[in-house]
Amino acid sequence: MIEERHETRGEKETSRIEAFSDGVFAVAITLLVFSLQVPALDNPPTSEHLVKMLLLRWPSYLAFFISFATILIMWISHHVMFKLIDKSDTLFMLANGFLLLLVTTVPFPTQLVATYLTTPVAGVVCVIYAGLFLMTNLVYNLLWWLAAHQSHLLKDSVSPKLIHTRSRDYALGAPCYLLALLLAFWSPGVSIGICSALWLFWVFTTYERRPTRKAYQKQRFEREKKESHDPA
Amino acid sequence: MIEERHETRGEKETSRIEAFSDGVFAVAITLLVFSLQVPALDNPPTSEHLVKMLLLRWPSYLAFFISFATILIMWISHHVMFKLIDKSDTLFMLANGFLLLLVTTVPFPTQLVATYLTTPVAGVVCVIYAGLFLMTNLVYNLLWWLAAHQSHLLKDSVSPKLIHTRSRDYALGAPCYLLALLLAFWSPGVSIGICSALWLFWVFTTYERRPTRKAYQKQRFEREKKESHDPA
Amino acid sequence: MIEERHETRGEKETSRIEAFSDGVFAVAITLLVFSLQVPALDNPPTSEHLVKMLLLRWPSYLAFFISFATILIMWISHHVMFKLIDKSDTLFMLANGFLLLLVTTVPFPTQLVATYLTTPVAGVVCVIYAGLFLMTNLVYNLLWWLAAHQSHLLKDSVSPKLIHTRSRDYALGAPCYLLALLLAFWSPGVSIGICSALWLFWVFTTYERRPTRKAYQKQRFEREKKESHDPA
Amino acid sequence: MIEERHETRGEKETSRIEAFSDGVFAVAITLLVFSLQVPALDNPPTSEHLVKMLLLRWPSYLAFFISFATILIMWISHHVMFKLIDKSDTLFMLANGFLLLLVTTVPFPTQLVATYLTTPVAGVVCVIYAGLFLMTNLVYNLLWWLAAHQSHLLKDSVSPKLIHTRSRDYALGAPCYLLALLLAFWSPGVSIGICSALWLFWVFTTYERRPTRKAYQKQRFEREKKESHDPA
């Protein structure tokens, strides 16, 4: 139980949590390359055989790509959430640790999907796959609830309206992933499809667009003009 | 033997040590995923067989979870300790390096426990497991002693009372882990139980809770009111 | 869709993107060491046999070196580009993620080249190798276009002339790598040669040289003299 | 060829180089754990057999420890050097990249030593081992020469005396490692011994000790007293 505060002036309290999380995301995303293997050829090797062997391994390329995209969007979500946060406490750190546990696990169910998607056991692997996504979404909800409601870890500048919008976006994911999980028993393809479509949803909800160079210079010019008329 | 100081103004001297340590913690915790393997099935595969094969591998999931939780709490402890430190010297860097050696070693004894916990050699692996934790605790004691007593590496704002509380908390771990090590010969389960219970102890001693949004705003409001009455 | 901005004052908005990218580059470049293996010897081992076995593995050393140099120059290019950037948006983050995908893939085609460069299938592997480089170059062009034209993510101090020079340099790469890809069918050696020569081109276009200690002190002395004559 | 400068005010220009290098050092040092393997036992396993199997693997523990200590001291040296540096240019970045290449290579010759130190080929592996250290030392000399002489990358506050001391310390290493390399043909043990002794030499030359809490407070008290007598 600590009551003293020892942050260096102006230091963002969450910077080491971000650095550690960045490290875990970066290692997890890079380890995926181990799923790509150089094929062994007969002696003497022929170009046709090499090309055929490389093409036969399409499930491992697909698994590599899906895992990469999944961890990448998780990292972007993490980045977008932590932009609003500048304090931290123990529960929040533990919840973030649990999220990282799920992140490092991603390659395992993805590998299951890549190996068994075209076999009779596709249903089981898609349940596990959607299940991991459901859990990840629940942990994002938990992290946001801890930061915005249970304790006050957000920056002072964050508006109640933004808190509300984000809470709604995170909450929307859970029923969709649950649906994907349940549909997996009926049609693995539809289940995978919903998981991928939600990827687009996360891109959209975190979407942010900067003005072009021209628009930016116009804005700046008008702000400066206004300031010269109305000095503080 | 260097007598000149060349830190950039306001730079925390330990920031590169923290970055390097974060990297080691992050890689070590992510490499644990290699203990999860996709099971090979007969052809054609059946859902029952896949589920059975996945469930049979529970020791590897347990090992993954324990290792993850262990390295996570070590990282949180490291983070909590370094919050109070803003200087560094060579002995401290070497001791921190020794701590990182123990961190990177964690997967090895955990794997031993996962492989042999249900066999007649459980006693030996639990001695090794508790032994690693005992050594880690001793190195945390050493790091803290170097920072707080041998040299003065703490921030000026750290109170003697906090130094005393922390010294006591770190020192309490050693006899408990020694007990776990000795009990391992008699009952491996009890030994593992003590190690897990100490996990909760570290969470508790580093526990920190932030005020809620409402309490935070009330505090701020009262501070501002007081300041307007009593201008500096 | 976010309209609020919550950057901490003076914080570079791209710092977490750089930290994450640095992590991915660092892990990818370090994983290459797995291509170096200790040879197994007969019992009893002889020095001649060990030396011979080590020399026989020259393709793995070459692959290690080429991959390392390739990822290193990609990192330097990334560093040089991000020096001019201090803002970010979603498209830019996704494009950067795609670049990191290519970075983590580097070991795979390099391993292909190392394994099959001296065999009849050299043509195929060199097409794949040059193809990866072509794609990487296209993504660098995309990143730069997003930062400089599509949105305004560059620092205010970057001159239009520098933007123009950089755009030209990035655009020059694409036709050269395409040429290398096409020539691979005719002569794998020439294809690899062009890829290596372009490595030198990237070093040259990002080349920057600092003044020596003497020149630096002279500059400083003259600036100070001028300032004392012409006080602001 | 860039002539514009775009560093954010007060930003240390080498911070991304340090972050990338820290990442490579951290990954390289953590990957060493792969040399520790859980032994497979007969069924049913006995405690005596497990202990015997674990003890038999002492060369892998030794290799793990030597590699860890080696990469750790290389990182400390890197840290100590970069404390004096706040600028960078292309040649310096390439030389640093070459150093990182050597760092990632460390596990390979260490593994060679661990595997063959007790066999007739010990001479060859010790030549390779000392050879890597010699090259690493030469690259440290090159880095320092680039930073201190070829271009002026050091902080303005670094004294010519410190530059001279450091240049001498780095230069001293080369003949010692060359001696270790040559003696390896005659006695592998002496060669390893010299390499280890130089480890202590690097600890000593980068050694830095902070005052104790009491000495620190006394210094501070006297400085404050002096300042109150002699106001600026």
Automatic annotation (TrEMBL), chains A, B, C, D:
Subcellular location: Membrane
Name of a matching Pfam family: TMEM175
Keyword vocabulary terms for this entry: Ion channel, Ion transport, Membrane, Potassium, Potassium channel, Potassium transport, Transmembrane, Transmembrane helix, Transport
Superkingdom per UniProt: Bacteria
Keyword flag Membrane: yes
Topological type in the membrane: Multi-pass membrane protein
Catalysed reactions, semicolon-separated: K(+)(in) = K(+)(out)
InterPro entries associated with the record: TMEM175-like
Spans through the membrane: 58-78, 90-109, 121-146, 190-207
Similarity comment text for this entry: Belongs to the TMEM175 family.
Protein name as catalogued: DUF1211 domain-containing membrane protein
Protein species of origin: Dictyobacter formicarum
